Amino acid sequence: MSNSKFNVTISDTVYKRIHELNEEANEQQPLMLRIRVDAGGCSGFIYEYDLVMDYEPGDFIAEKDNAIVVIDSLSQSFINGAIIEYIEELGRSYFKITNPAAQAKCGCGNSFAL
């Protein structure tokens, strides 16, 4: 299920937000946060976040207190060693990935270059 060489740090704020999203969604089965890297954005790659019910073979799966984060096998190579947080600031909240592999990022922080 997981690549043993893949490592990310996921903050407690991410798991807390997943719990909040599950409460809002009120689904029978808990939703998982899927993080993936796609081509796009102003710097070449962009982080995408989706709520899903299932994981795929090869996904990295991290779980804490029944809150689950999944990262597909292709995206793992782009964010290995990253720190994933959920930030709440005055007027906005967002997921933030601090990626040691990123050589450049755009002003929004959601697009990066390798």
TrEMBL record:
Residues 7-110 form the Core domain. It holds the Pfam family Fe-S_biosyn. GO terms for molecular function: 2 iron, 2 sulfur cluster binding; 4 iron, 4 sulfur cluster binding; iron ion binding. InterPro entries: ATAP (IPR016092), ATAP_core_dom (IPR000361), HesB-like_dom_sf (IPR035903). GO terms for biological process: iron-sulfur cluster assembly. It comes from the Bacteria. NCBIfam families: iron-sulfur cluster assembly accessory protein (TIGR00049). PANTHER family: IRON-SULFUR CLUSTER ASSEMBLY 2 HOMOLOG, MITOCHONDRIAL. This is Iron-sulfur cluster assembly accessory family protein.
